[in-house]
Write a structure and sequence with these properties.
The complex is a heterotetramer, with 2 copies of chain A (84 residues) and 2 copies of chain C (149 residues). Chain A has 84 residues and is of the alpha+beta class. Chain A contains 3 helices and 5 strands; from the N terminus they run βαβααβββ. The termini of chain A are far apart. In chain C, α2 runs antiparallel to α3 and α3 crosses α4. Chain C is of the alpha+beta class and 149 residues long. In chain C, a hairpin with a 2-residue loop joins β9 and β10. Chain C is 34% helix and 36% strand. In chain C, strands 1-6-8-2 form a 4-stranded mixed beta sheet, with helices on both faces. Classes of the chains: A alpha+beta (84), C alpha+beta (149). At the C-D interface, α1, β2 and α3 of C face α1, β2 and α3 of D.
Chain lengths: 84, 84, 149, 149
Amino acid sequence: MNIKVLYFAALREALGTSGETVALPEGCTTLAGVRALIAARGGDWEKLERMKNLRAAINQRMAEPSATVADGDEVAFFPPVTGG
Amino acid sequence: MNIKVLYFAALREALGTSGETVALPEGCTTLAGVRALIAARGGDWEKLERMKNLRAAINQRMAEPSATVADGDEVAFFPPVTGG
Amino acid sequence: MSVSVQEADFDIGAEIDALLAGRTDVGAVATFTGLVRDINDGSGVHAMTLEHYPGMTESALEEIVAQARARWDILAVRVIHRVGTLQPADRIVLVIVAGSHRGEAFAACEFIMDYLKTRAPFWKREDTPEGSRWVDARDADDSAAQRWN
Amino acid sequence: MSVSVQEADFDIGAEIDALLAGRTDVGAVATFTGLVRDINDGSGVHAMTLEHYPGMTESALEEIVAQARARWDILAVRVIHRVGTLQPADRIVLVIVAGSHRGEAFAACEFIMDYLKTRAPFWKREDTPEGSRWVDARDADDSAAQRWN
């Protein structure tokens, strides 16, 4: 099961990438699971867990950590928004 | 003691005049007194007492019925405002 | 001059630009524009005439602006109110409030409109198919003004 | 189209005119414009860059507008948000709400701004004499959005 993962703003800068394709192992079916999977790589990736108030979206809609992730989804992680 | 009295909007139309000079008798020293004095002329002038929620100003500032009127003042009577 | 009472129409964009000219400290601009509607209280309106109390209108508006400035930390205010005869879709009134942040700008703009509606000496007369009539004051406007007490 | 995300500046007066074109049922227009300030959190700001999440920004703004239309009896809405690099005094965001009466227009305009500030995926980075920094989300914005719940 593959998903697209995007990073924005301070998180994108901290990770040095704006996105990637991530293969999800069996049983990794929630946003919280995806976040933990990526953070487990260590190094800068741990910022995904350490960054305060990180927000996320699934298929371009805000989503909670418990939300389900499906094959082909576009998942995004980003800091609290500051537009307007 | 003479004052200038102005009428606006529906009241001006009902009275058929936009204003006049009024000589105040001894003891007529409040807005309420001026209003009663003019209404006592009878006929259309009674509208000054009968018109609902009539408002008044002294020297171009909103004033309550108990406000004091002095020689040379500009007094105005008018319906509730409806601008904006 | 922050307050104008005039027969002429106004240009909202130009008024905002003039109010902000040379400033770099403004983060928020709230505006309100009131227009003539072609329907009021169930009747068609084909024209509206605005009467006012010359002299008192300007000072009443200036006092309302001064009260807004005393209540909120705002940077600049502009109020324009038209008088004379207007048609549906014509602009009647413009309030612009500039501030550092949006909360103050919105509150002050709404306050100025609420107070203007109940304290500035303007009166509207509408021409409808049933004839000409003076517009009645709305209870809703009194309630709106009272919530700021 | 009621929502735009663009690099180009906008003309407030022209946007209001376009939104009201041909209408005679609008009695109230509330607008909000957000601008770049030259000072934020005590530091001078000489430029600001707005990053966004293409695709999601438009749908997030459209959903906020749809919520405003469901809550209030309003007639027309326009939202424009700029992205890219801006200077102090540059316009960032414009919200226009047209309605029959002012209460609904003001409330919907303020609601849209409060929700936009906390739910639309835009991020500001400021250039200051101390370097470039991402703007922190403000607790005041969360509180402002929560009062509509």
